[in-house]
What does this fold into?
Amino acid sequence: MIKLREISLMLLMAGTFGFSSCSDEDLNPVSVFDSVTKEEKNEFDNWLEENYRKVYNIDFKYRYSDKESDLAYNVTPAEFDKSKALAILVKHIWLEAYAEAAGIDFMKSYVPRIIQLTGSYKWNTNGSQVLGTAEGGLKIMFYGVNELDIDNPRINTENPYESHQVRPIDMNYWFFHTMHHEFCHILTQKKEYDISFRAISAANYHATDWINLQDKRVAKEGFVTSYAASEYNEDFAELYATYITNTPEGWQLIIDAAGDAGTAILNQKLDLMKEYFKNSWNINLDTLRNIVLRRSGESTKLDLRTLK
It folds into this structure.
């Protein structure tokens, strides 16, 4: 049996041999870190510099970055061509829509400073998908970029109850709804909305089982989606994103599903929301909605492969 003293002696000898071997070699005076060079900028990088960083002070990150990602999830990088297409769409439908409705200074002040793209979705342990996240108003993460159909972009503004498995994917559900939802979180973190909103459905939130609920069912309780039924902040953001990305006809489908009781609750929440955006941000929600819907219609005709 090897004794503790013999183990110590062997470790000491191993360390000595290792030190002697290294000392016989000349060390390279050039640091390995100096050999790591930044990736050369391409046409897309230059376009992002002109259209995102210079105009809105946004760092649009499409390359995968460990430090910008949640390492607790197994995700894939966003494809280059689909990242480019999404950057064009986000600029037209989201950034320029708000700039048109509220002014360029508003967007410069309140947009997130980082947009990070990820190719696949994050999945939670309860089976729900994470479509996007907003972190402290500074960064927005968009997932599932590789699902984008560049040559057949489709934006459903007419039916909020359409199956999310329809192909080509509905850009409204998978991207634009998420963008507006997360931006709403950023704005409400800057200026609080009327706390009376929290009390409207306080007794009806489904904190743990919302994932198992149907959108049409929760409409009767005054929620636009099952996720809205999870808690009041998500209720506010979901109501906002759903209202401005659906036509009056699409919104009417929610009202029809809600019935009299659900409609009364939805209208009460919507009145508080409109008042919040008017008084806090000088944004008329119906004007913004018209702009978003118009630009959504225009986006299907955009050339998503060519940077202009």
The radius of gyration is 25 Å. The chain has ten helices and six strands. The first helix runs from residue 4 to 23.
